[in-house]
Amino acid sequence: MKKISFSELKNIYDYEKVRIEFRNQIIKIKKNRRIQIGNNITLVFENRETVIFQVQEMMRLEKLVDRKLIQQEIDIYNQLIPEKNQLCATMLIEIQERQYIKPILDSLSGLNDKCVFLEFDNEKVEPIFDQGQLTDGRVSAVQYLTFSLSKNQKEKFIRLGSDPKILIDHKNYTAESPFTEEMKKVLIEDLLSEE
Which terminus in the chain has less CB density within 10 A, N or C? Predict the structure, then answer.
């Protein structure tokens, strides 16, 4: 997928005028890109539109107008745009009760080490976690994952009947969730759009 460039973004004043409509479009797009795995973990598979939205929202929140600072944000968020044979996702560890946030996050230490997988057709793809989100063995509530597929795995994924799912097998958190047909379809479109 093509990376985002500065020229594609609206300044914060122009963005404010279209923000509600754009946000509603992104909510619809994310509907088929979101998968809940167990009670506390959600993955959102990213594409150009979802990442542009995140950059625009960051610019709005931080009131960014300086081109150099905006470019820094673009460079960071461009890492969420999948390259050839990749699927990229944001993992959200969602904990509603404030008093449980630290204990639950601490209990998930090591989640990035052979615990999360994309499984389909006898294939098991372990993602690469963004190292910037891992500090001193602690897990951040937001993680960025990249699933890199071999050419053969990509062909298996797009084949009918592959039934992909996300599997988490951690000593303190075990869950799995199958993709919906709609989700599989949009992710196949992502993989095919790179060609």
Answer: C
In a domain, 182, yes or no: yes
**Assign residue 138 a region: left if phi > 0, alpha if psi is -120 to 50, beta otherwise?**
beta
CA atoms within 13 A on the CB side of 188: 17
pTM value? 0.92
Please count the helices (runs of H) and the strands (runs of E) in the chain.
6, 11
Q: What is the pLDDT of residues 36-87, one digit of tens each?
A: 999 999 999 999 999 999 999 999 999 999 999 999 999 999 999 999 999 9
The pLDDT tens digits for 111-121 are 999 999 999 98
Question: What residues contact residue 48 under an 8 Å CB cut-off, 6+ apart?
Answer: 1, 2, 4, 81
Strands 116-120 and 165-170: antiparallel
Any domain includes 1: no
Name every residue whose Cβ is closer than 8 Å to that of residue 182 and which is 6 or more positions away in sequence.
32
Domain assignment present for 99: yes
pLDDT higher than threshold 90 for residue 131 = no
